[in-house]
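User: Can you write out an input/output pair for a complex, sequences first and structure second?

Assistant: Here is one pair. Inputs:
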Amino acid sequence: MKNLIQEFFKGIVKENPTFVLALGLCPTLAVSISISNAIGMGCAATFVILFSNIIIASIKDFIPDKIRIPCYIVVIATFVTITELVMKAYFPPLNRALGIYVPLIVVNCIVLGRAEAFASKNSVMASLFDGVGMGAGFTLALTLISAIREFLGAGKLCGLTVIPGFEPALIIGMPSGALLVIGLLLGFFNLLKEKAK
Amino acid sequence: MNATQFLVIFISNVFIYNVILSRFLGLCSFIAISKQTKPALAMSLAVVFVTTMSSIITWLIYRFLLIPFNMTYLRTISFILVIAAFVQLVEMIIRKIAPPLYCFFGIYLPLITVNCAVLGVAVLNSDMYFGAETPILASFVYSAFQGICVGLGYTLAMLLMSAIRERIETCDIPKAMKDFPIGFIIASIMSMAFMGFNGFRF
C-alpha cells in the first residue's frame, strides 16, 4: 500500500510531468488562459492517462514488442474519442474553448510516455495510481500556470475580478506570455531543485 | 479557388498563426531539437513532407470513408493511425532507397508520429474545409496547401530558433535557466515579434 501511495505522489512533486519531465507542453501552453479551461483540460487528460494506463497494464503480456507503440496509440485514441464525445455532449462551452486541443491529447507525450515507461512494465494497480498521480500533477501544473496568466493577463481569478483597479498586462494572456511564464517557472523550479541538493 | 485565397493561407499559417509560436503545436520537438542548425533543418524538412502528405491522406480518408459511412466520430483514431502507418512506411522506403538521407534524418523521422503539428493540421483541415460535413469548393487543394504552409511555418521558427541558440551557447546564463527555460524565453520574444504580423487583416 505504501508503494502505491508513493506512485501517486511521485507524479505530483518528484516527477511532475510539466515542470520536471517537461512533457506535454503544447496543450499546457495553449489552454492555460483561464483556470476553468485548465481544470477542464486537466480532467480530460487525467481520464485518458488513467484508463489507458489501466488497459495497457492489463494487456501488456499479449502485445508483441515490435508493434507496441501503434497498439498503445489505438488504446489512447479510443479514450480520447470517448472524452471528446462526452465533452461535446455535456460541456459544449468547454469544448469550444479547448478546440482542437481535445483531439490532440492523443499526441500528448505524457500519455504515451506513461504507457511506455510505466504501464508496460508494472501491475494494473500500480499503473492506476501512477495514472492518477500523473494526471493530478499535470492538472496542478496547468492550474498554476493558468492562475498566473489569468491574474496578470486579465486581472481575474476563475472569472472574478480580484483587485479592483488592477491594470492587467495583456501580453501575458497572449501566446508569447504563455512561453514567458513557463520559461520563468521552469527556471524557478530548477533553482529550487539545486537549492534542495 | 483564386490566388488571394492561397496568399491568405500562406501568410496566416507561416506568420500570423505560426504553428509553433502562436498555436503551440510541435513545441516538444521545437525545444528539444533546436540546439543546432543542422538537425533542426533535417527535422523541419521531414515535418514539411509529413504534414503535406498527411493532409492529403487524411482529407481522402475523411471525405471518402468517414463522411459517407457517417463515422466522423472516429476522426481522431483513424487520423493518428494513418499518420503513424505513413511515417513508418516513409521510414522504410527511405532506408531502402536512400541510406544517406536516412542517416541525415536519423531518429527524427519516427519522432514525427507524436508531433502534434501533424495531427493538428489534419484536424484543422477537417474543421475548416468541411462546413457541416460537406467539403467546400476546392477543399482538397486548400488542405494540401495548408499542410505545406504549416510545415513552412515550422521550418521558419525552427531555423530562427536554432540560429539564436547556437549563438547563446557561449553566453553566461544562470545555471537554473540553461536549456529549456532560456529556450522558452527566446521563443516568447520571437512570438512577440511575430505578433506584429497580426496587423495583416484580410
